[in-house]
């Protein structure tokens, strides 16, 4: 396995509220752990939320005695949610803060994924790019209800409104996915600062072009997102199985 992570402020923002965690070695009972979190909130609240989320999840996973990947992730996310929510209640400057979360671990030939919000995980092979996670966003709900077409979503004025986040309510529910992997698959995890700037096919083209070098692929993806406007912070993790 080869992995590369990167976060970039983008072309328009004054601060970076994204946070990434990329560990190819064991974290608690997990043989590896990868997380992308995209914070939201005024002043430094978004940065605090994303950073605290990752710190809390990693802390809890290291001491968890849960037996399955899903139960371990679920426990860690719940702990992070409680901590961030409490911090926001105790400090007016952090009021309303929250963060997206997409986390993954690879065990043998299986990928276990947890998702809250609109940060994404894709699997890329030599034929296609597949979005594994489902966005918890207003626009995604509009697509499901037949109000807009999927091709309209990336440019919709409400595309940044998310319907589920870590830390904004007392309890939060994550979606979980289990994906079989094969040799040569490449996993892309990213904040919406990447996926909102590029079509999935453009991301796949760059990843396949630089498939022998995850660092070169990651840097080119960030560069391309900035060329396309760079309207938000851009964060990604690339993992080659």
From TrEMBL:
Gene3D superfamilies xref list: PPM-type phosphatase domain
At the top level, the lineage of the source is Bacteria
Q: Which GO terms describe its molecular function?
A: protein serine/threonine phosphatase activity
- Start and end residues of each PPM-type phosphatase domain: 3-241
Q: Which InterPro entries is this protein grouped with?
A: PP2C, PPM-type-like_dom_sf, PPM-type_phosphatase-like_dom
Q: Which PROSITE patterns match?
A: PPM_2
Q: Which NCBIfam families match?
A: Stp1_PP2C_phos
Q: Give the protein's recorded name.
A: Serine/threonine protein phosphatase
């Amino acid at each position: 396995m080869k992995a590369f992570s990167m976060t970039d402020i983008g072309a328009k923002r004054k601060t970076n509220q994204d946070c990434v965690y990329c560990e190819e070695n064991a974290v608690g009972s997990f043989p590896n752990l990868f997380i992308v979190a995209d914070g939201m909130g005024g002043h430094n609240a978004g940065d605090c939320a994303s950073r605290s989320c990752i710190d809390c999840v990693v802390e809890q996973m290291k001491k968890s005695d849960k037996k399955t990947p899903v139960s371990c992730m679920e426990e860690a996310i719940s702990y992070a949610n409680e901590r961030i929510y409490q911090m926001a209640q105790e400090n007016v400057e952090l009021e309303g803060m929250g963060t997206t979360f997409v986390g993954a671990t690879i065990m043998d030939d299986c990928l276990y994924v947890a998702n809250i919000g609109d940060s994404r995980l894709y699997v890329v092979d030599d034929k296609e790019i597949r979005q594994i996670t489902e966005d918890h966003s207003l626009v995604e709900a509009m697509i499901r209800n037949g109000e807009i077409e999927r091709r309209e979503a990336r440019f919709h004025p409400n595309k940044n409104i998310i319907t589920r986040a870590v830390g904004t309510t007392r309890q939060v529910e994550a979606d979980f996915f289990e994906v079989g992997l094969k040799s040569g698959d490449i996993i892309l995890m990213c904040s919406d600062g990447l996926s909102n700037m590029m079509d999935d096919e453009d991301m796949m083209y760059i990843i396949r072009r630089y498939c022998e070098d995850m660092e070169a692929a990651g840097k080119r993806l960030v560069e391309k997102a900035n060329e396309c406007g760079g309207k938000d912070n851009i964060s990604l993790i690339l993992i080659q199985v």
